[in-house]
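Quick start: what a row looks like.
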Amino acid sequence: MDFLFKTAGNILFGAGKLQKLGHLVGEMGGSVMLVTGRTALKKTGLLDKILADFKGRGLKSTVFDAVPPEPTLGVVEDGVMLAKSSNADVIAAVGGGSVLDVGKAVAALAPSGITPRDFFYGTPIPGNGLPFVAVPTTAGTGSEVTAVSVLIDDGKAHAKVGTRSPYMFPDLAIIDPVLMLTAPPDVTANSGMDALCQAIEAYVSRGASLVTDVLAADAAQRMILALPNAYADGGNLVHRENMALGSLMGGMAFANARLGLVHGMAHPVGVRTGLPHGLICGLLLPAVIRFNAPVCGEKYARLAWESGLAPRDSSVEEAAEALAAQADRLNNIMSLSSRKKELRVPKEEWPAVVEQVLISGSTKSNPRYVTPDDVLGILGEL
């Protein structure tokens, strides 16, 4: 069997590991640009602590704190300009998936001479960018170990794409579950369902290998068990550790195996509704499991059996349905189902949505072949 497996250059995992950030950044360069969201790091006081640590180590630091939940090409362009003008030689991103996506794009593009727009529309990055350190504050996207940056073209309606380059893998990922203890329940729910969906989709993807299967299966089982507990008791470090590890392992898996129809649909639906990506993934997941079950039911069943969702003597069909039912149950427990009506896309836009779904790389990796009528059928269920 043949496969190629890639991930972040180095991964540092554990409670309190954020304390290593300044030292490790200092080993990479002397001028760091810190990429963050607009408010979260400031509210927790973490931004000041990080900057004080940089200063104490003699590092020059510049802050780029303009990343919104749905980042655009314009945001990346602003980040690239600031990285150049500040002579940054290291990029560090601390935040959720959107922050990490912007950080890795800035790090890759800043020395390349390629514009974000050209990259978005297919121009390849020619070589290594600036050293990049990813520090996630949510357990969701797995962006800390992928070469994907999900961006919106702010100059064109409804254009949202997961851009890829082998030069966007982070050089270092620092996963500190302590940073996730303060995540509110809705963020835990949305990011957690994204992570669960990614693990399940990677497990059944056409691009799956024995290595990604091991990672994805563990990630999915871990998330199934940890997510409702972390939602109910967000201050419990054990639950947060399991969430963080599940997100990390799922990210390592899908970075190599790719995803499936849920993510193929989530981007065109999300750019039209403005809803959180993880919420959309969670609400689409049960329908896609049921759609795919005829061709990959045994893998779904294995997840259900190993997670205790179905008895060992149940049939493949029964166990696969138990997995879909658990996704429904999680959506209900975490109050995501109450927002299902908000997912509805106007019928006049369905043809455009179908077109974008079918050309998505995620859809092409789906285990079951997807037709226009299949997409319309799922849209009609929303």
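That is the whole record. The mean pLDDT is 93. The two ends are 40 Å apart (CA to CA).
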